[in-house]
Amino acid sequence: MSDQQARLEALAEEVKNLTASPLYAYRVENNYHSVIGEGAADANIMFIGEAPGENEAKQGRPFVGAAGRVLSDLLASIGLKREEVYITNIVKDRPPDNRDPRKGELALYAPFLQRQIDIIRPKVIVPLGRFSMDFILAEFNVPEQGQKIGALHGQVLQGTTPYGPIAVVPLYHPAAAFYNQGLQNALREDFQALKQFV
Known about the structure:
There is one protein chain. Strands 1-3-2-4-6-5 form a 6-stranded mixed sheet. α1 (3-16) runs antiparallel to α5. The radius of gyration is 16 Å and the shape is globular. Helix content is 43%, strand content 13%. By secondary structure, the protein is an alpha/beta fold. The chain starts with a helix and ends in a 7-residue tail after the last helix. It has 9 helices and 6 strands; from the N terminus they run ααββααβαβααββαα.
């Protein structure tokens, strides 16, 4: 096991035992799992959603429902498999009724995401959806922060991490695209911007 892999597994263990989380009791009560993320520990491309849904919490894996199928198809369209990228969420536990994560939840889980990014050191981060985009643009000091996803989707933006510059490519969330043909076409088109990082 690589050093990166070992560090990710240690981090997963910490999240699993995060009794301080307001979502911990809900997880235990419903027999859910925390969802740390999966993929290559040295991936060039890292996809970040906002929080796991019910399917994800049941399986302990990110993006496994309908949105996951859309994501897998999109990856295939640029010649990639899920195992070659890294997929995670900001919040690692499912919020009840798929509500947006709350400020306190974000504050609690954000350091785990920051550590994941620091371990994997991707060349490009792909926030999936408005919520994740707002968080990532602020996190990496991207000049376009505060703008709407409708204006920024599919663009290659520049941010700064502790280990150097990073590209950020905001995309619509695959779940939103699932119900909206227009967004689906935009997502397919926007995905081509990732080809240069493959």
